[in-house]
């Protein structure tokens, strides 16, 4: 495989999703590792501590994400490609609309951690 193909196969992707209650397709992008780290750091989302030795495990504290609406807002602001929303627009939404934003944030987070499928080489 040449370098261009390799880079294209391993670049961050975009995809269209459907969200219940919205008629149009929504385009999201994968967040880079750096973007994910910055979001976690800015919102004080940490890895769970091991109960035996107090070291970090490789599991993220999901409760901290679930209870942090500002985190979800920033995920949407970074990961929503089309249609674009501003922070001001999101802060003026009612509870029903915020539930839709939360679903979009979940889709972005799930998509961001997906591992690309490796092509197997035929023998």
- Mean pLDDT equals 78
Question: Widest sheet: strand order?
Answer: 1-2-5
Structural class: alpha+beta
The total count of helices amounts to 6
**Helix proportion of residues, in percent?**
40-55%
Strand content: 15-25%
Give the termini distance in whole angstroms. 16 Å
Shape: globular
The main sheet comes to:
3 strands, antiparallel
How many structural domains in the coordinates?
1
N-to-C SSE series? HEEHEEHHEHH
How many extended strands?
5
Radius of gyration: 17 Å
Spans of at least 5 consecutive residues with low confidence: none
Question: What layout of secondary structure does this protein have?
Answer:
Elements: H1 3-9, E1 14-17, E2 26-29, H2 33-42, E3 47-49, E4 56-60, H3 62-66, H4 69-79, E5 80-82, H5 87-91, H6 95-112
Antiparallel strand pairs: 1-2, 2-5, 3-4
Helix pairs in contact: 4-6
